[in-house]
Amino acid sequence: RKIKEPRQIAPSLISICTHNSSPMETPHTKKRRVKRKWQVFPGRNKFYCDGRIMMAKQTGVFYLTVVLILVTSGLFFAFDCPFLASNLSPAIPAIGGVLFLFVMGMLLRASFSDPGVLPRATPDEAADVERQIANGAGGPGYRPPPRTREVVINGQTVKLKYCFTCKIFRPPRASHCSLCDNCVERFDHHCPWVGNCVGKRNYRFFYLFILSLSFLTIFIFAFVITHVILSDRGSGGLWMLSWKQCSAFLHWCTVLEVVVCFFSVWSIVGLSGFHTYLISSNQTTNEDIKGAWSSKRGKDNYNPYSSGSILTNCCTALCGPLPPSLIDRRGFVEPDSAQPMAQSNGTNTCPLTQLQSHMVKSVE
């Protein structure tokens, strides 16, 4: 009998098999597969600068806010400040510049930061909770109502609601934002003007933004009118001028400033006053709208988070330590470990190697 020579296997195929069967990967390959947590974040947020900036998905109104502030302030500094500095005081442009920088700083700080998003449950934790829900179900297709837990805070009973999206029991004062699809700690509201949720970690910056914007709007409006009045001296009165004279005297940029400031100041000042009331009573917009601590719900219903002092409540909201972010959005996600192939005697084998061994042993 003749013994057949084993067929030669291409070296390229053997090298491919050897590479695939190796449990170790080169550092370059491993580095390419590593992702940061913001890249696989389950919410509807957008991230910039490698996860350092976190915003809501809808940011169109935020850009409108930035444009309105920049255009109005730019026109004021370009057309009104030179006249006011030479005729009244050079401190006017300086004060306006400080207010403008503070407003922009607080706006960007409130818009780009994590509002206090709560991390979702891990797959193991979620599976355990789902198993408990399934065991308590009354039948196939039955969905139990949202469960709650009760805790006592300063003598007041507070209910903790279960979030079926994040698979967690929300802490007190937390709520799920339907636009960002996240549970936010001390949720106040979702503000499209800043392009982000307003919660525990950025509420103070939001409040300082609207408060300083109120001062800036009043400041620009008052000194634009002052510019108009001072320039009108000796002309027989502004209202006595013809339309052509008014067009030559009042530049269209000044008119635009007056219109924008006039229609903005009422809403901005009103919003600042409303949030000043909320801070002084240690409430959130969400709680105030729902009437969570209203006396109509019962005589014994009261706000357990208020200290009873306006000064203490303001210091707690504005001067307390800033809590750290809980989602670690710039952390690294561990890559999934490679699944071993079929094993025979405890070692990884390759189908191509098995084929070669079988061909060497085959005889006729």
UniProtKB/TrEMBL annotation:
EC number, UniProt record: 2.3.1.225
Keyword set includes Chloroplast: no
Key word Iron-sulfur present: no
InterPro entries: Palmitoyltrfase_DHHC, PFA4/ZDH16/20/ERF2-like
A single MF term (Gene Ontology): protein-cysteine S-palmitoyltransferase activity
Domain of life: Eukaryota
Cross-referenced PANTHER family: PALMITOYLTRANSFERASE ZDHHC14, ZINC FINGER DHHC DOMAIN CONTAINING PROTEIN
Domain text: The DHHC domain is required for palmitoyltransferase activity.
Full protein name: Palmitoyltransferase
Source organism: Electrophorus electricus (Electric eel)
Taxonomic placement: Eukaryota, Metazoa, Chordata, Craniata, Vertebrata
Gene: ZDHHC14
